[in-house]
Specification:
The complex is a heterodimer of chains A (229) and B (113).
Chain A: H1 4-17, H2 23-42, H3 47-58, H4 61-71, H5 73-112, H6 116-144, H7 146-152, H8 158-186, H9 189-221
Helix pairs in contact in A: 1-3, 2-3, 5-6, 5-8, 6-9
Chain B: H1 5-21, E1 25-26, H2 27-38, H3 49-58, E2 62-68, E3 74-80, H4 82-108
Antiparallel strand pairs in B: 1-3, 2-3
Classes of the chains: A mainly alpha (229), B alpha+beta (113).
């Protein structure tokens, strides 16, 4: 079933994906399209017909995207830079949280004595790896929702960037240090050493899996067509 | 016959500036005005107007203001700045010179008709 609202929304999303049009450009084009559609429907065309003709007159989206890219160069690079910074923050928080979750293996060993300290170290790596993947997946789905882009647009002053960075840096430090402090209070250096040895010797497996996952994701999500900017 | 792409592209900037010298306007109305002025002979791809407008704004020839119209639609109105008015004069001279040059050759050789 054709609805104009949905069709217009799809068209706008197509333009958004080109990444060279600002939200204000898209709004301006939409207002143009609406006006043209209104005129065509008063001439007796159906909503679907007026949408198709209106879109056709505005022109090929790819061609338009490259024209807008010439005007918006600075804004496009600024936008990319902010995404890069946001990526850094997100990876920082993901790694800190996972390291914290991994350290829970120490508590589990403390109460249940399942694996011995060396085994608990390996368990730490497993927990770390699993929560890394889980958190990355959660963040991925959160980021790909369109509402995230709108929130991101507020994230554009130097003050907000620096304060967010400080917050994440301190939060990450606390998350990583806190379990270690508890560990040294509870156990001898020998036991902690065994735990760390176990976790470090199995960590390479986690990093290998992580790298393979990232590479396959990268290949899977690559754009189908090269965009020229 | 429709005007060729090259000529449409070359005349786009002077045409937009000249239309804006008639008074402020917005994208859709500019497109309609072009169609009206050229009797439909000048075919524009509507979307291509906007990158040109934004470039002219960056160059400081025009300025824009977003306003809500009486039908509660948000529209971005463009109007000419002083430098833009100068540019119109400049373009006028150039196009008139171009036309005058062509005219001279055509008048000298009536056999071409």
């Amino acid at each position: 079933m054709f609805t104009v609202e949905q069709a217009v929304e799809n068209w706008k999303n197509d333009l958004r994906q080109k990444q060279t049009l600002m939200e204000s450009d898209i709004e301006e084009l939409e207002s143009h399209l609406q006006e043209e559609m209104e005129r065509l429907t008063t001439l007796g065309l159906s909503e679907e017909e007026s949408f198709l003709i209106g879109v056709r007159r505005i022109g090929d989206t790819t061609q338009m995207a490259s024209e807008f890219a010439k005007v918006n160069t600075a804004a496009i690079w600024k936008n990319r830079f902010f995404w890069m910074i946001a990526g850094l923050f997100v990876s920082k928080i993901i790694f800190s949280l996972s390291s914290f979750v991994g350290k829970l293996s120490f508590l589990i060993e403390h109460y249940f004595h399942w694996f011995g300290w060396y085994g608990a170290g390996i368990f730490n790596s497993v927990l770390y790896g699993l929560s890394l993947i889980l958190l990355a997946a959660v963040f991925y789905f959160y980021v790909t929702r369109s509402s995230f882009s709108q929130k991101m647009s507020k994230f554009n002053t130097l003050t907000t960037i620096i304060s967010t960075w400080l917050l994440f840096e301190i939060g990450g430090l606390v998350l990583q240090m806190f379990p270690m402090v508890i560990m040294t209070k509870l156990y001898s250096p020998g036991q902690i050493g065994q735990f760390l040895w176990g976790s470090q010797s199995s960590m390479f497996a986690v990093h290998t899996v992580w790298a393979v996952l990232l590479i396959s994701l990268f290949i899977l999500l690559r754009p189908k067509k090269m965009q020229n900017i | 016959m429709d005007i060729t792409k090259d000529l449409v592209a070359a005349s786009a900037t002077p045409l937009i500036l000249s239309i804006l010298s008639e008074g402020e306007s917005y994208g859709y109305a500019i497109i309609k005005r072009v169609a009206e002025l050229s009797g439909g002979k000048m075919k524009w791809t509507d979307g291509m107007l906007y990158p040109i407008l934004h470039r002219l704004e960056k160059q400081g020839l025009i300025q824009s203001q977003t306003r809500t119209s009486e039908t509660s639609r948000k529209r971005k109105y463009y109007y000419l700045k002083q430098d833009g008015a100068k540019a119109v004069k400049n373009y006028q001279n150039q196009w008139q010179d171009t036309y005058a040059t062509l005219l001279k050759v055509w008048e000298d050789k009536p056999c071409l008709q």
